[in-house]
Specification:
single chain, alpha/beta, six-stranded mixed beta sheet, 63% helix
Length: 576
């Protein structure tokens, strides 16, 4: 818990009050058997009803205080553990938000979901249990042992035999379960990955009639988790019968040997009843300790996984930024001998010695085959990834010298995969500028050719979008994402194959709006269709991570074999 101490401090009062109130419960529970012994030894044997009533009322009063201690202890424990879990989850989520694409690539989405939910819940649960049992279990164990020894030291020898056996058993079980819980959490990661992937791509699954395959895949993951969970929990389950058996054996031994002492007159019958109660309390405290330790082994496995997230340093940060007020003013872009690869241990670069200069306000088309490096190239501009060699400059300054916020605020980017969020059309568009007026929203939606279809909705801009924008078409989703990017009023606009689902007439209208209304914005357009970039100021042709041509459409068609081949193949497809 030392690593998580910062999440304890804001709730320190509850962390202190919980054990204190649990101690009140312990004192009450330990004192009750003593009073019961007095009722039997004095009140019942002497037929002293007044003593029985007085002691009984005292017991009732103690029970009330014991209950109050237990209830308040549980209440403060819930407050402490819930606050702890909430703060930890917020911090972990914020850390994930700071991750670069490369950091996120190192964790699967399902694993991050598991860590932010199930793993933190495990820590929250053990905090709740630990606070209630932190002083209660050892306090009950020590106090009950003291009372039992004080009452009858010779009979307490039974505990000297039972307790070590139980301690060794508990230690063995913990040693066996600890690695199992780590494996189990990894299996849960895999299961969550399958669920996330399936639900995200459910339309693809149905269109290819792959439900049966996905069911089998999910079944295999579930069975894998089941097998690893059963192995871990089977050992935990064995704890209860072992503890129960030990408790029963100890109780029988106490009744047997204690009964003989009662018959011999060396032990009052009331003391035998109280002693049996203390035996139960001692073994119950051991049982509580065992459950805490067993649950702790799972919580420790989960804690290590959370620490992995918290200790992961974003590889893209503002450490090299000297002037945090520096902003992009013109939008000029330069690639200077840029080399890039996604995995450091790989020999092959995705981009090789890229050199390219783009002037402010210029419209540049980027084209090339699948996997040629087009998307990788533009992702280096807003520092979604960092270069391995060379540098990317904006307005003559290395992008690593800008603060991430100022850099990305100046760049509007529509990724290949268009993503919308649950909420209204307006709330999605406001991602571009939270302070945008309704007039601005409509203006930029019109530039993206989205205003018309938005107004066709019953509630217009207040219409609800399903999760991921499931209730709009692919072309409509693309236009909404373009409008959202335009609302940023960026100095640089990057469209990564963002009009592929739009008809040619609508695409032409979007290009016209860009040319007329975004003259001062530098525009980079990645496209598969020649028609999408034919009118660009310049076109960059990329092949296998290398720029093989730069020029206008006519220049490239006349002089660049790669570009001409792309043009001819598309012309042939249209002719067919």
């Amino acid at each position: 818990m030392k690593r998580f101490s910062k999440y304890i401090k804001p709730h320190l009062l509850y962390f202190i009050l919980t054990p204190l109130f649990m101690c009140v419960e312990v004192v009450g529970e330990v004192y009750l058997p003593r009073l019961l012994a007095e009722i039997i030894n004095i009140g019942v044997i002497n037929d002293d009803r007044g003593f029985v009533i007085r002691t009984g009322l005292k017991m009732c009063l103690i029970i009330v205080f014991t209950m109050a201690g237990g209830v308040l202890g549980s209440y403060f424990s819930a407050k402490a553990s819930t606050g702890f879990g909430n703060d930890l989850r917020l911090d972990a989520f914020k850390k994930v938000q700071s991750f670069s694409f490369k950091n996120i690539d190192n964790f699967s989405t399902g694993s991050l979901v598991t860590r932010l939910t199930n793993d933190i819940t495990q820590l929250q649960n053990i905090t709740n249990m630990g606070l209630k049992m932190l002083l209660r279990a050892p306090g009950m164990l020590i106090a009950s042992l003291f009372m039992a020894i004080q009452m009858n030291a010779s009979l307490a020898v039974i505990l000297a035999v039972i307790v070590p056996v139980l301690a060794l058993t508990i230690g063995f079980l913990i040693k066996k379960t600890f690695p199992m819980f780590g494996i189990m959490q990894k299996k849960l990661d895999k299961l969550n990955n399958n669920v996330q992937e399936n639900l995200t791509n459910i339309r693809v699954v149905k269109s290819f009639v792959r439900e049966e395959y996905e069911n089998k895949k999910f079944c295999d993951s579930t069975q894998d988790l089941y097998n690893s969970s059963v192995g871990a929990f089977l050992i935990v389950i064995l704890t209860m019968p072992v503890m129960t058996l030990s408790m029963n054996v100890a109780t029988i031994a106490v009744v047997w040997f204690g009964g003989k002492q009662v018959l011999e007159g060396t032990m009052p019958v009331g003391d035998l009843s109280a002693f049996a109660g203390y035996i139960v309390q001692v073994l119950g405290a051991l049982m509580m300790t065992a459950m805490i330790l067993l649950n702790s082994s799972r919580a420790i496995a989960s804690g290590k996984r959370i620490i992995e997230v918290l200790d992961t340093e974003p590889d893209i940060n503002d450490d090299a930024v000297e002037n945090r007020e520096l902003v992009v003013k013109e939008g000029a872009i330069s690639f200077k001998n840029v080399c890039f690869k996604y995995y450091k241990n790989h020999d092959n670069y995705v981009l090789n010695h890229i050199n390219l200069d783009i002037t402010p306000g210029e419209t540049v088309g980027i084209i090339g085959g699948t996997g040629s490096g087009k998307t990788s190239l533009v992702q280096l501009i807003p520092r979604l990834y960092d270069v391995d060699e060379g540098e990317v400059l904006i307005d003559g300054t290395d992008v690593r010298k800008y603060s991430i916020k100022n850099l990305r605020d100046s760049i509007g980017m529509v990724l290949q995969k268009n993503v919308l969020f649950s909420g209204t059309v307006k709330s999605n568009l406001l991602w571009g500028d939270m302070e945008a007026s309704d007039e601005e929203i409509r203006k930029y939606a019109a530039y993206a050719q989205a205003d018309h279809f938005i107004n066709s909705f019953t509630k217009g801009y207040d219409s609800e979008l399903g999760q991921g924008g499931v209730n709009v078409s692919g072309g409509q989703k693309q236009r909404l994402c373009i409008a959202r990017a335009l609302l940023k009023k960026p100095k640089i606009l990057i469209l990564d194959d963002s009009t592929s689902a739009v008809d040619t007439a609508t695409e032409a209208a979007i290009r016209k709006a860009f040319a007329e209304e975004l003259k001062d914005t530098t525009k980079l357009i990645i496209a598969q269709r020649i028609s999408s970039i034919k009118a660009a100021d310049r076109i960059v042709v990329i092949d296998d991570g290398t720029i093989v041509g730069v020029g206008t459409h006519d220049e490239l068609y006349a002089n660049n074999p790669t570009y001409r081949e792309i043009c001819i193949s598309q012309e042939e497809r249209r002719a067919e």
